[in-house]
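Q: What would this chain look like folded?
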Amino acid sequence: MLQTLGLTAKALFSFLEYTLQNEYWFLATPWKFIKEMNSSKILIVEDERHIARFLEYVLQREGYQIAVVNNGADALKAVPKFEPNVILLDLGLPDMNGIEVLKQIRSINNFATPKVVVLTATLYDEVSDELNQVGVDAQCSKPIAPTTLIRTMQEI
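A: My prediction, written as structure tokens:
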């Protein structure tokens, strides 16, 4: 249908984005509603506040529900309360290793097991092997581009 109208999907989404930000917002209301309907909940576990804010901003714009914690102990408390579908987990947390946090999360049996995306500035082969053993669904290097983050969330 878009081809019949001579439009590309990118052009259509650009138009919708423009209408959301300008006086023609009422034309894009259905699109805005669809984006807001995303029910996936993401827990961000990141000790660097500027990175946590960046991740939160990008994912909220995509319609995800977000909770942010800055250390492993808070992550262990937040998982049963927030019940995330996905956890973005930094490996280098100040109070405990991200792998240890993940092992403890996986041992909690009273909720659905969330997908886990590990964020790290450096990734070694032995760490990568251990991550695979504890059930990591994806690994991303920091810094991460918004498009890479969104694509990763859509793929898992």
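Strands lie at 41-45, 65-69, 86-90, 115-120, 138-141.
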